[in-house]
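Revision sheet: structure tokens.
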Amino acid sequence: MSEASTQRPLRVGLAGLGTVGAGTYELLLRNRNEIARRASRPIEVVAVSDKDLGRVAELTKGLTPVEPDAMALATRNDIDVVVELIGGDGFAKTLMLAAIDAGRHIVTANKALLAKHANEIFGHAHSRGTFIGFEAAVAGGIPIIKALREGLAANRIQSVTGIINGTTNFILTEMREKGLAFSEVLAEAQRLGYAEADPTFDVEGVDAAHKISLLSAIAFGTAVHFDQAHIEGITKLSSRDISYAEQMGYRIKLLGITKRKPGGIELRVHPTLVPEDVLMASVEGAMNAVHVLGDAVGHTLYYGKGAGAMPTASAVVADLIDLARLLEAAPEARVPYLGVAASAKQDLPVLPIAEIESGFYLRLGVKDEPGVLADITRRVADSGISIDAFIQHPGGGGEGQTEVILITHPCIERQIRLAVAQLSALPSVVSDCTVLRVESFQ
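Predicted:
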């Protein structure tokens, strides 16, 4: 008889049988022997709950009891852990808090809920000695939370930068490879199932901001600061900029970025030029990648599928295995939710976007006449900014016009704003200036 078979099972109540919930249920059944061997005890789904009873019946085939009221999972005495895969920050939050009150542990993939309410939820769970696992909330099957909290715990983390939204990375890849406009590629992404019917959270950068806010808190041992993140999406990105960036040796990615700085931390999401010889630039399609820079380990990169039924279910079940191993352990023996004890958190301010340092890409439509380039470079130099590279695209702005594209050396954003204001005032400039940030990964 194996040791796992002699241990009391970890009893699971599974709330939500959508894509991730169905994958989690299937994975727990399919790999139950391997999971029990690794967890040193069986992990059993005691009950499932979902509004779509037809879907539940099809998935479970009568093997698992159905709980019509998901709230009942929070208080049933035969359940140790509630796996919340409903999503949203309404009912899911109510369910989670009720489960914590009843002494149940939590595993969730709900990044939106945690980004907005982590400080409240973690504080409440800490007071009750409750385990909360949320590896599945960021980057799907990539174990980036475990890497930051445990594998890199000896490091003073300097930065975390990631492609952490597969939908936008798919769209940007298609725009670059096919030269199509954003609207055309979005429609294709929706047809293929990469984008939701309402893609706002993805394409406006909100989903990535949820995730980088959680990673930032873990990396630097702070509270979660989603409400202070600077967020820009890709809806206004032109295929021309993607093409020009490639001509200059860059690819454009939607990045979530957080950095430790002397005055605080940077926390931002926006389209970014990445040098094409950097590994991050080669992450294509719906894949995710996270780059972490630590003072001891140096540069590390984590790559894989950031969404989907099985990759995300893999992370959910990994949290269940962690809990199964520690079920009888004292709460203080577990890894803290954000990697440091609540009493050890640092109060680091989030820097305003005007204070961040970056390289910048500028595109201007100008009159095609002598002296224009000299005027532009002089205004940029007067703002204290050094130009790294530039190209001119004749006819890019229409008849009698041209487009000038500059890439600057790193400078403070307020400097680039001053330069743009001065450039826009030139009589030779005939269009608004497009500004994108550049990350070198040096």
